[in-house]
Design a protein that fits this description.
CATH class of the largest domain: Mainly Alpha
Low-confidence stretches: 30-34, 169-193
Number of domains: 2
Shape: globular
Structural class: mainly alpha
Number of strands: 2
Order of helices and strands: EHEHHHHHHHH
Number of helices: 9
CATH architecture of the largest domain: Orthogonal Bundle
CATH superfamily of the largest domain: Homeodomain-like
Largest sheet: 2 strands, antiparallel
Length: about 190
């Protein structure tokens, strides 16, 4: 049926305390094992959304992995690492020197590497490569050639993309969470792009 008008529901959804709420730059009033998001925090989220802030809400049980690399490595409390992740997320296709990332995080280069690995199980370069590979796979799935996808996400050619995609345990570790600190499996090492 062509020509049928579509209507989008643009009202603020009713959120329950058990909903998973992820808002870049927004944090609940207190950290720690306080349980689900409080009604006061839900009100603050609604106000944030009304003011034009970005709010992503999703319902999933705790056993399902995050669908995107952008979210899989965000369940930590390090503000420095979150600031660096925000920078990498917005500029993943560009070369990002460790010194620039450390300055964005407000820490020394070695401290950033140590904090980043402790918080996410990856190095900053490993996180950037994960974002690049995920985006390239999306482009390839939409019909882009491997060479064009590799260049679009910041690689100089398809060789590095193929190498990263061919790592047998890389995506399995990330999806299962086994590259997380304390999981018993050491994180995958990352190489320069």
């Amino acid at each position: 049926m062509q020509g049928v008008p579509l209507v989008a529901d643009t009202r603020w959804p009713e959120l329950a305390p058990d909903d998973l709420v992820i808002v870049p730059g927004w944090r609940p009033a207190a950290h720690g094992p306080q349980g689900p998001v409080s009604p006061g925090d839900l009100l603050r989220l609604a106000e944030h959304h009304a003011a034009g802030g970005t709010v992503v809400y999703a319902r999933r049980n705790g056993h399902e992995p995050q669908a995107s690399a952008l979210m899989r490595h965000r369940s930590h409390l390090s503000d420095s690492v979150h600031r660096v992740q925000n920078l990498i997320d917005s500029r993943y296709a560009e070369p990002l020197p460790l010194a620039e990332l450390a300055a964005a995080g407000g820490v020394a280069e070695r401290t950033l590497t140590r904090l980043f690995r402790a918080s996410t199980g990856l190095t900053p370069l490993g996180y950037q490569q994960l974002l690049r590979v995920e985006r390239a796979e999306h482009l390839i799935g939409r019909g882009t050639t491997v060479e064009a996808a590799a260049r679009a996400v910041g690689f100089t050619g398809a060789r590095m993309l193929r190498r990263l995609r061919a790592r047998p345990t890389r995506s399995d570790q990330v999806l299962s969470g086994s590259s997380r600190p304390g999981s018993g499996t050491p994180p995958a090492t990352s190489r320069a792009a």
